[in-house]
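Quiz preparation item.
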C-alpha cells in the first residue's frame, strides 16, 4: 500500500475508527493523561496542536479544562461536521486544517506550537513519509507527546483488520535523534504514552 492509498483510507473512513466512532466514545483516560502533561507546563496558556485530531475528543477535553489556543490537523473532512455537532465550542474557537499532516506541517514556522501531540496517528505514517517526523520536532517548541502502538521487535508493520497499515517504531529513538529528550513513559493497554522536551529546554533527566 503506497502513501496515497493510506491517505485515502483515512480520508474516506467511516464506521470503526471514523470521526463518528471517536465522538461516540468521547474523551478517555488518554485525554486526561494529555491534560495532566500540559498542566505541568509553566505556561498556563500554551498553544497546542494535535496531529490527527479526528472529531476532537482529546482537544475537547482540554477545552473543558480551560485550554483555548487549540489547533488540529485531520485528513477526514467529515470530522469537522462531527466536531461541530458534538463539541460546538471547540469547533467554533479552535483552528483546524483538513489535509494530511505531511501537507500541512511544512507550512508552519519553527516553534509554532508550545505543545504537539498525537494519539495513534504517527503509527500510520507511511515509511516513504518519515521525513515528516523532523517537521514535527521543528514545530514543537516545549513539549511533544506521543501515544502510539509500538509493537514488538519481531515485526515492523501490521495490517489492522487487513485494511490499513500500522507501522511500529521506536519513538524514543526517532525523536531522540531529532534533538528531544525523553522525559517520561507509561505503558497502556496497547499504546505507549511518551513525553519529550527539546534537549536544550529539558530540565529533567531522560528515563
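Solution:
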Amino acid at each position: 500500500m503506497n502513501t496515497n492509498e493510506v491517505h485515502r483510507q483515512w480520508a474516506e473512513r467511516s464506521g470503526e475508527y471514523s470521526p463518528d466512532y471517536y465522538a461516540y466514545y468521547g474523551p478517555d483516560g488518554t485525554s486526561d493523561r494529555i491534560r495532566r502533561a500540559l498542566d505541568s507546563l509553566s505556561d498556563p496558556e500554551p498553544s497546542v496542536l494535535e496531529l490527527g485530531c479526528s472529531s476532537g475528543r482529546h482537544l475537547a477535553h482540554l477545552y473543558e479544562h480551560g485550554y483555548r489556543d487549540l489547533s488540529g490537523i485531520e485528513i477526514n473532512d467529515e470530522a469537522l461536521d462531527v466536531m461541530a455537532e458534538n463539541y460546538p465550542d471547540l469547533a467554533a474557537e479552535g483552528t483546524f486544517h483538513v489535509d494530511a499532516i505531511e501537507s500541512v506541517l511544512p507550512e508552519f514556522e519553527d516553534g509554532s506550537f508550545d505543545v504537539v501531540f498525537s494519539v495513534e496517528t504517527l503509527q500510520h505514517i507511511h515509511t516513504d513519509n518519515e521525513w515528516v517526523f523532523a517537521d514535527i520536532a521543528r514545530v514543537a517548541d516545549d513539549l511533544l507527546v506521543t501515544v502510539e502502538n509500538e509493537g514488538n521487535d519481531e515485526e515492523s508493520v501490521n495490517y489492522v483488520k487487513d485494511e490499513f497499515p500500522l507501522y511500529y517504531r521506536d519513538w524514543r529513538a526517532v525523536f531522540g535523534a531529532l534533538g528531544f529528550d525523553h522525559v517520561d513513559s507509561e505503558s497502556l493497554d496497547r499504546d505507549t504514552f511518551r513525553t519529550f522536551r527539546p534537549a536544550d529546554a529539558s530540565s529533567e533527566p531522560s528515563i
